[in-house]
Design a protein that fits this description.
alpha/beta, TIM Barrel, eight-stranded parallel beta sheet, 12 helices, about 300 residues
């Protein structure tokens, strides 16, 4: 259920307000392009800028539009444990399939504090919880020993690893066995992550080219070395430009250029610089026909 290509969705805004109609279209687009699951209200979804009411609305709408065609793994993160519990419970009530919760940021808790935080989230809900380790953003890392300790809880189902440490995949797999979910949170190394023993990727890039990202994961399923190398080569320039500035600034600009949504952001995020915008446009122009061809191929395969 949780293998393959997952999309960390953006939250579209129009005139500063949540754009429901565009969000619905994005989910339909993802579901039809081979994406294996969607993640609303994560980092890419600008969750720190949403009110609790908006957060709940976005998750609830994602569940309603997905209609169980793909699982909805709802972001439920805060450095305030009580707030994280409230978000997790709200997501469960909305019908989310699982929770994605990041390590508590800014406060830099000890490993014991991290365990207590995630245990509290685990105990508050009856659906799976996926840990999220992204120390470059949070300022605190999950030790391997801590992951193993948390994995002993029945509803701690997996880890989204955005460290880029490919050797870690093998270490964790040996410690945790085959049933513990390991998902990459780093687009540029997702193929290496899969081949090292991972289960898939929670992707930023898949917002733009879901068919290509899904095809890369299928190539990893079948260990098709030639296909994997080709898809990596095609996707590499897009991975690079989507992180020229903090995510989701370039991503929203890319989707705006594609005519899929406005590029509205909430402060403290600000628009992409003109120089980076030009680079982004060049890469999008090059990859667009490749994605269109892959999308047609997937549609034909599904129809057959």
């Amino acid at each position: 259920m949780y293998r393959g290509s997952f999309t960390a969705l953006v939250t579209p805004f129009r005139n500063g307000q949540f754009d429901r109609a565009t969000f619905e279209k994005q989910i339909e687009f993802q579901a039809k392009q081979g994406t294996n699951g969607i993640i609303p209200v994560g980092t890419t979804g600008e969750s720190p800028t949403l009110s609790h009411e908006e957060h709940h609305r976005v998750v609830k709408l994602a569940v309603e539009v997905a209609k169980r065609r793909v699982p909805v793994i709802a972001g439920a993160s805060s450095n305030n444990t009580q707030t994280a519990l409230e978000l997790a419970r709200s997501a469960e009530r909305a019908g989310a399939s699982a929770i994605l919760a990041v390590t508590p940021f800014y406060l830099k808790p000890s490993q014991a504090g991290i365990v207590a935080h995630f245990r509290a989230i685990h105990d508050a809900v009856g659906i799976p919880v996926i840990l999220y380790d992204v120390p470059a953003r949070t300022g605190v890392a999950l030790d391997d020993v801590t992951v193993k300790r948390l994995a002993g809880l029945p509803r701690i189902a997996g880890l989204k690893d955005a460290t880029g440490d490919i050797a870690r995949v093998g270490r964790l797999r040996r410690r945790l066995g085959q049933d513990f979910l390991l998902l990459s949170g780093d687009d540029s190394t997702q193929a290496a992550f899969r081949l090292a023993g991972g289960d898939g990727c929670i992707s930023v890039t898949a917002n733009v080219v879901p068919a290509l990202c899904a095809a890369l994961q299928h190539g990893c399923d079948d260990r098709l070395e030639g296909d994997i190398q080709w898809y990596e080569q095609v996707l590499a320039p897009l991975h690079a430009v989507l992180f020229l500035e903090a995510n989701p600034i370039p991503l929203k600009r890319a989707l705006f250029r594609m005519g899929q949504m406005g590029d509205g952001l909430r402060l403290p995020l600000t628009p992409l610089s003109p120089e980076f915008d030009r680079k982004l446009g060049q890469v999008l122009d090059a990859i667009a026909p490749v994605e269109e061809k892959e999308a047609r191929r997937f549609a034909a395969k599904r129809a057959a």
